[in-house]
Amino acid sequence: MSDGGLVQLLTPDGERVAHPEYDRYVAHLSDEDLRQMLRDMVLVRRFDTEATALQRQGELALFAQSLGQEAAQVGSGRALRPQDHVFPSYREHGVAHVRGLELTDLLRLFRGVDHGGWDPTSHGFHLYTLVIGSHTLHATGYAMGVQRDGAVGTGDPERDTAVIAYFGDGATAQGDVSESLVFAGVNQAPLVLFCQNNQWAISEPTTRQARVPLAARAPGFGIPAVRVDGNDVLASYAVTAQALERARTGGGPTFVEAFTYRMGAHTTSDDPTRYRAAEQEALWRRRDPIDRLRTYLVARGALPDEFVASLTAEADALGEHVRTQVRAMGRPSAASMFEHVYATPHATVEAERAWFESYESSFLDRAEGSPR
To answer: Helices marked H in the chain — which ranges?
Structure first.
């Protein structure tokens, strides 16, 4: 898919370029704000690296990387207000970090010790959703509820609320996303539909899913759309800030297509070398979102050595924290999969639990030399 027509404020070489519509959304950001964006991206990548290593060591059953998508997530996440609400898919680690979640709580799902639960109201961050695209309906419904509660267009910056749903390019092929566009558009819901187009729905490129940019779908539902360079943290912030402003003031939904690249695998069970070329990966590594902002700050003389040293130490401490916390979670029993399926006892589930426990014990008996 073409990367033409993208909103961009930082080039891949780290040069600041002016934009007549979006400059005003970043004009208030200080060098310290930009350093904090860099910090967020560096820490999220370190978390990603540690979690991937833990999966390879058998400490996690699976992990979904966000490698390469840090700018889209951190930029958009930092544009949110405390009262806004996020509906993530399953790789929005950068948004979770910006919203103040303990990152190791995300790994309880991938370790299998629970169903990935945390209190969504504490940080305005809903639970991870593994069913592709289904949460866009939840987000649309929530946004319609916010609207009916009178928390939109009041003029009170501490009351007016927006909702944002994150999903990938592959989710746009699901009916749920189209239904969300219908309801959001018709009801003028205060919703931002944030599509991280990382160009690969597992092994299927975007060109096998659409013949036009994904953002081109939204106007057919009466929803304005914008394409942004998802490896540009400033542009991601600016575009999302405008969309959230529209939502909070009663202007209705916006579809954002953040054009980025999944530098890692879809999950740790995936082998991307089977379906994409090393040359393409090398091209996108030269567009690394962290390097882009770092280069810009260095050119401005706004990245002192003390900050870099402190950030390196903080990233190392985070790595140790992730390793320690994950290993302290313990290991779930295989039979725990039957828990919390229903709120009340269910005969079929209980019968399956009994069969499974009998099956498991048969292996233990055999190991102890019991006759069969």
So the answer is: 31-56, 70-78, 93-98, 103-111, 120-123, 134-148, 175-187, 233-248, 278-285, 289-299, 305-327, 347-367
Long-range contacts of 219-223 (CB under 8 A, 24+ apart): 221/181, 221/182, 221/184, 221/185, 222/185, 222/186, 223/181, 223/184, 223/185, 223/193, 223/252, 223/253, 223/254, 223/255
SS3 call for 157: coil
For the cut 90, the answer to whether the pLDDT of residue 340 exceeds it is no
Minimal CA–CA distance to 313: which of 37, 41, 46, 32?
46
Query: So what's the pLDDT on residue 366?
Result: 53
Beta-bridge partner residues of 259: 197, 229
Question: What is the model's pLDDT at position 372?
Answer: 44
Report how far residue 330's alpha carbon sits from residue 108's, in angstroms, rounded to the nearest whole number.
10
Catalytic residues, which ones?
262, 266, 275
Nearest to 67 by CA among 259, 289, 271: 289
197 neighbors 214 (Cβ within 8 angstroms)? yes
Which residues make Cβ contacts (< 8 Å) with residue 167, sequence separation at least 6? Answer: 89, 132, 133, 135, 136, 177, 193, 194, 195, 196
pLDDT 10s digits, 136-187: 999 999 999 999 999 999 999 999 999 999 999 999 999 999 999 999 999 9
Q: What is the pLDDT of residues 38-70, one digit of tens each?
A: 999 999 999 999 999 999 999 999 999 999 999
Give the confidence band of 371 by pLDDT, cuts at 50, 70, 90: very low
Contact residues for 216 (Cβ-Cβ < 8 A; gap 6+): 225
Name, in order, each residue with C-beta under 8 angstroms of 209's C-beta and a sequence gap of 6 or more. 169, 170, 172, 173, 201
- Find out whether 237 and 78 touch, Cβ atoms under 8 Å: yes
pLDDT of residue 364: 60
